[in-house]
Structure to design on (183 residues):
């Protein structure tokens, strides 16, 4: 995700064209944001097919309502994704997100080198599964998706201070889990 001024200006220009349903602009948005939204679903659904279906539906809804979209595009995109995810769980009778044990998680280059080098992915999944849903979301967005605190605040509809506090609590909980397991 580009957050510099040049990137913001470029995104603004693309959005202006996309709101006029310019096919090239819509395609550009899809190419840039499809992988991000796919990863969001991939970490939260049972199968790759479910993640692909939900991601496709996000972009169908984007095309259907981009003409009236206001405010931060990325936050709006994630609100659509989050609402679809809630519907996905309701249809399956699961209000709680799928446990991270059932998902493939790879360490991110943005994660701490020590943890990445010394912990196995299975250990990380088990530890993340012990966190609250909000803590899992903030850790996923920060360390797996490499979002800034400002972007996470928009996505989660929280203040930057609340995001920092949530990250602190999540990392403290992970640290406590590591201590208990003797890592």
């Amino acid at each position: 995700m580009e957050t510099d001024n040049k990137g913001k200006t470029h995104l603004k220009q693309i959005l202006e064209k996309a709101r006029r349903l310019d096919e090239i602009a819509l395609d550009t948005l899809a190419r840039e944001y499809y992988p991000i939204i796919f990863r969001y679903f991939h970490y939260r659904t049972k199968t790759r097919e479910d993640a692909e279906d939900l991601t496709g539906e996000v972009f169908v809804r984007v095309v259907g309502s981009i003409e009236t979209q206001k405010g931060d595009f990325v936050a709006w995109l994630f609100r659509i994704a989050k609402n679809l995810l809630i519907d996905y769980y309701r249809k399956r009778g699961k209000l709680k997100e799928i446990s991270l044990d059932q998902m493939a998680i790879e360490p991110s280059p943005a994660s701490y080198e020590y943890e990445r080098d010394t912990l196995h992915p299975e250990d990380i999944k088990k530890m993340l599964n012990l966190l609250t849903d909000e803590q899992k979301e903030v850790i996923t967005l920060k360390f797996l998706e490499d979002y800034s605190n400002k972007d996470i605040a928009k996505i989660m509809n929280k203040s930057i201070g609340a995001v920092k506090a949530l990250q602190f609590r999540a990392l403290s909980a992970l640290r406590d889990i590591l201590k208990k397991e003797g890592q």
Summary: The mean pLDDT is 79. The radius of gyration is 17 Å. Residues 127 and 174 are 7 Å apart (CA to CA). The chain has two domains: 1-98, 106-183.
